[in-house]
């Protein structure tokens, strides 16, 4: 199958583009701010924290809360989506010291994942991380290619997952559905942080 030269040029350009500088650390910080909000108010407001230019989704789990933050950036001929998902247990969210310790762990894990992603993009070596990549082709009313890579640490530690996707299939790509396992929590739902303490 032959592809137009413009599509091949886009794929080569996007394959060499690293995650936008600071996106992963910014996304991890956004997630920790959301956990801080839940600590203070016992609920999710539905709005990104101050100085957080990301979209946010919060999921309630049996033993804690999962927060996913993502940004979508336009690049010439396409888009790049970077997403980070992190989790905390109810007891961690409820306690000030535990919250601070868990927040530092989330940011450290995000930086580790970013180093692995940089290595994957540079030399196709995931270092000590695990990764899964998919490529989708679309034809019809909307044509193009979408590449999606999920990176995680296989160390039985805290849930922390990085997604890096790029393509030219749409001017407004969808949210990172691969990072969600349940239904997003609507704003204002009270979270009982005493569960599993």
Helix-strand makeup class: alpha+beta
Distinct helical segment count: 4
Helix content: 25-40%
Number of strands: 6
User: What count of structural domains?
Assistant: 1
Which parts are unreliable, with pLDDT below 50 for 5 consecutive residues or more? 1-18
N- to C-terminal separation?
58 Å
| Order of secondary-structure elements | HHEEEHHEEE
Q: Choose one word for the global shape.
A: globular
Kindly report the spatial arrangement of strands forming the biggest sheet: 1-2-3-6-5-4
The amount of beta strand, in percent, is 25-35%
Task: Show the helix and strand layout.
Layout: H1 5-15, H2 23-41, E1 55-60, E2 64-75, E3 78-89, H3 90-94, H4 96-123, E4 129-138, E5 144-153, E6 160-167
Helix pairs in contact: 2-4
Labels describing this entry:
six-stranded antiparallel sheet, 6 strands, alpha+beta, disordered N terminus, 197 residues
Structure description:
There is one protein chain. Helices cover 32% and strands 29% of the residues. The protein has 197 residues and is α+β, with helices and mostly antiparallel strands. A six-stranded antiparallel β-sheet has the order 1-2-3-6-5-4. Helix 2 (23-41) runs antiparallel to helix 4 (96-123).
Quick synopsis:
The protein has 197 residues and is an alpha+beta fold. The chain has helices at residues 5-15, 23-41, 90-94, 96-123; strands at residues 55-60, 64-75, 78-89, 129-138, 144-153, 160-167.
């Amino acid at each position: 199958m032959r592809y137009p030269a413009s599509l091949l040029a886009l794929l080569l350009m996007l394959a060499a583009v690293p995650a936008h500088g600071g996106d992963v650390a910014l996304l991890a910080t956004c997630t920790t701010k959301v956990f801080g909000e839940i600590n203070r108010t016992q609920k999710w407001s539905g709005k990104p924290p101050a100085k957080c230019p990301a979209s946010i989704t919060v999921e309630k789990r049996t033993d804690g809360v999962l927060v996913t933050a993502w940004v979508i950036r336009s690049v010439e001929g396409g888009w790049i989506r970077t997403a980070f998902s992190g989790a905390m247990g109810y007891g961690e969210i409820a306690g000030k010291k535990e919250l601070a310790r868990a927040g530092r762990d989330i940011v450290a894990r995000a930086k580790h994942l970013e180093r692995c992603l940089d290595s994957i993009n540079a030399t196709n070596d995931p270092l000590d991380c695990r990764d899964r990549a998919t490529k989708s082709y679309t034809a019809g009313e909307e044509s193009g290619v979408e590449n999606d890579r999920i990176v995680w640490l296989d160390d039985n530690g805290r849930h922390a997952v990085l997604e890096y996707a790029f393509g030219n299939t749409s001017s407004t790509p969808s949210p990172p559905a691969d990072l969600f396992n349940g239904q997003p929590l609507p704003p204002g739902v009270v979270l009982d942080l005493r569960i599993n303490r």
